[in-house]
Amino acid sequence: NISGSKIENLYQRLCENYLIDDGEPFIFRTYLLFKSIKYTDMPPIPHSLIDRIINLFVIATRDPYNYCRMIWSNDDFESHFYTSDLHQQSEDIDFLDHKFVPLNKDIIRDISKMANNLGISDSPGRELGRIPTVLNYYYYAWGSQYLDQMAINLAITLEYLFAPEGRTELAHQISVNSSRFIQYLDPDLEKNYRIVKKLYSLRSSLIHGSDVSHEKKVDIIQPAYLLVSKILKELLISKSLIDTFGNENKRRTLIKSYVFGK
Question: Residue 195: which residues within 8 A CB-CB, separation 6 or more?
Answer without folding.
Answer: 223, 224, 227
